[in-house]
Automatic annotation (TrEMBL), chains A, B:
InterPro entries: ICDH/IPMDH, IsoCit/isopropylmalate_DH_CS, IsoPropMal-DH-like_dom, LeuB_actb. Pathway: Amino-acid biosynthesis; L-leucine biosynthesis; L-leucine from 3-methyl-2-oxobutanoate: step 3/4. GO terms for molecular function: 3-isopropylmalate dehydrogenase activity. The record marks Y135, K186 as: Important for catalysis. Belongs to the isocitrate and isopropylmalate dehydrogenases family. LeuB type 2 subfamily. It is found in: Cytoplasm. It comes from Streptomyces erythrochromogenes. Its EC number is 1.1.1.85. Its cofactor is Mg(2+); Mn(2+). It catalyses: (2R,3S)-3-isopropylmalate + NAD(+) = 4-methyl-2-oxopentanoate + CO2 + NADH. This is 3-isopropylmalate dehydrogenase.
Length: 346, 346
């Protein structure tokens, strides 16, 4: 834990700017007086692309390397062709900085609206692989646009990549009270990648005798997410399955407005990046309707990653208390940020 | 519509035998007296594999070709390595008989338990591509079992394969009152396959000016499945996304015990195959606890496919009425089959 934080901020598109402002407000409020916070904003996203055609120039990628961490708002705009900013900016950062742990906790906070009847007790974390699988950009298209087109997408999986994320997930499971780890894949169909995942999962498991393990096919996992989400503690899964499952997890725990995430490189070789799971929501940008809680909870993950455990817990407790006391009247983005900043400072 | 049906029956594993027996009971009860039903049972699945090492020998594949349709119970057993029966039998049939339409209706019947609060009005159908995508078995593993292993899975998509399933989905949407079709993919990451799907979807859509269209990324689609499932009418999607979404759809509409499916080759070149979405559930096999309704609803899809529309509707209405009058006491597999057979005969 350093006594200064040199933070890169990428507000991005749509509501990104608004939610990041609240994240920074709470970060400033929670940090001890003697910790020096330096921030540098990066102008990346749809506007930059429209202006210059650039998504993430080398100079900026280089500059980003020298920060302790990155806080990102949201990337994407309907005016930009699908994939350009996702692949050219967001995934480029995840891959360039080798963010192999995509950490996504899911908790049903008190007093939040879940679509599930019976309000099950949900508190699990998905450890999503972040640098392999179908996200590598490998594939292509032949005879594009003709009736004879063939398009491929190649999922690449390495023992190196799978073992490190599986090991991280065992460590997390081992440090939680329930000590339970579920592998999700589809090894009855994707037999090559699926069997490698399962074999490595079983092998690494021998080093964690106290962790109870379980395997589910991804289709069956979605059933349990809605019928029995309390059965999960830690889940480890591939990049694409993790993408799908964590949106579903956000939905059942009260919506994407509360779902935080960290793109983590635990080796420290590159800065880790924290962002809400939600997108840029251009339809509500500028209206003050965006919920900044997901970004604020992402700031908690950022603080935990940098060694500020007490401050991370203070933010999480503040969110819990804030939601518990909520009376259902509308609060603006700014008002929620103010309320949480006041609580963590208090 | 023929005046005889020559049906192949593959009971398969676990509860397969029990639920198929009820499906046949209802089929016999619903058919007009002058329709001759011939059935031939095929001994395929885990027991056969243990006995002979075979999953689907050429002679049986050849014999199956000459039936009007196939009714399948369930395939899979924990005593068989994951993937052996799935790839060697179930998927082999879907691919050999070019079942490019994997049809999976989802309806929240009256009086069934959904995990969703508020009991939304759910009535949609997923048209899942059945012969391409990540299910082709393309891929491999290098340096298997070593720390240097690389495993790949290749999703193969052709304009030929995508156009025919997209066109089928437009036809279905066009014939339904709401006339709405949603494409689900992940074209911001899987840009090669995703853009091809989207381009073909848009192109074919020009021929169906009355159909309202929509596009969702698969992760966002899972959110709407639990927060707003009533927004869907017809969904068209890739093989793997369809696999995941239809299990989730089954869960929100009262469980996998009610979810029917058809693996359809609309050209008639090969027999189509009808099966419940659920698996072989070895834990409850032989206990009389299996719900045969999914199989019985699959028989309705089979009848519709063979031109017996009135009989298909009779089964579906019987299931609706039966569920509506259910009082919550336990009924065995057999008792449910008897009740439905009595209703459709009456
Ligand atoms: C925007 C998109 C590329 C991204 C992903 O697929 O990873 C998003 O859905 C997420 O979950 O962070
Ligand atoms: C058993 C398995 C191969 C199959 C699939 O993945 O298609 C099943 O999950 C299904 O949905 O029919």
């Amino acid at each position: 834990m350093s006594t200064s934080i040199n933070l890169a901020v990428i507000p991005g598109d749509g509501i990104g700017q608004e939610v990041v402002a609240q994240g920074l407000k709470v970060l400033t409020a929670v940090l001890p007086q003697d910790v020096k916070l330096e921030t540098r904003q990066y102008d990346l996203g749809a506007q930059r692309w429209h202006r210059t055609g650039e998504t993430l120039p080398d100079a900026e990628l280089e500059a980003l390397k020298h920060h302790d961490a990155i806080l990102l708002g949201a990337i994407g705009d309907p005016s930009v062709p699908s994939g350009v900013l996702e692949r050219g900016l967001l995934l480029k950062l995840r891959f360039a900085f080798d963010h192999f742990i995509n950490l996504r906790p899911s908790k049903l906070f008190p007093n939040t609206a879940t679509p599930l009847a019976g309000r099950p007790d949900i508190d699990f974390v998905v450890v999503r692989e972040g640098t392999e699988g179908p996200y590598t950009g490998n594939g292509g298209s032949l005879r594009t646009g003709t009736p004879a087109e063939v398009a491929t997408e190649v999922s690449i999986n390495t023992a190196y990549g799978v073992e490190r994320v599986v090991r991280d997930a065992y460590e997390r499971a081992n440090s939680r009270p329930r000590k339970k780890l579920t592998l999700v894949h589809k090894n009855n169909v994707l037999v090559y990648a699926g069997h490698m995942w399962k074999n490595i999962f079983d092998k690494v498991g021998q080093e964690y005798p106290e962790v109870t393990t379980d395997y589910l096919h991804v289709d069956a996992a979605t059933i349990f997410f809605v019928t029995q989400p309390e059965r999960f503690d830690v889940i480890v899964t591939d990049n694409l399955f993790g993408d799908i499952l964590t949106d579903l997890a956000a939905a059942v725990t009260g919506g994407i407005g509360l779902a935080a995430s960290g793109n983590i490189n635990p080796t420290g070789a590159f800065p880790s990046m924290f962002e809400p799971v939600h997108g840029s929501a251009p339809d509500i940008a500028g209206t003050g309707k965006a919920d900044p809680t997901a970004t604020i909870l992402s700031v908690a993950l950022l603080l935990r990653h940098l060694g500020y455990e007490a401050e991370a817990v203070r933010i999480e407790d503040a969110v819990s208390a804030d939601l518990a006391e909520r009376d259902g009247t509308f609060r603006s983005t700014d008002a929620i940020g103010d309320a949480l900043a006041a609580r963590v400072a208090g």
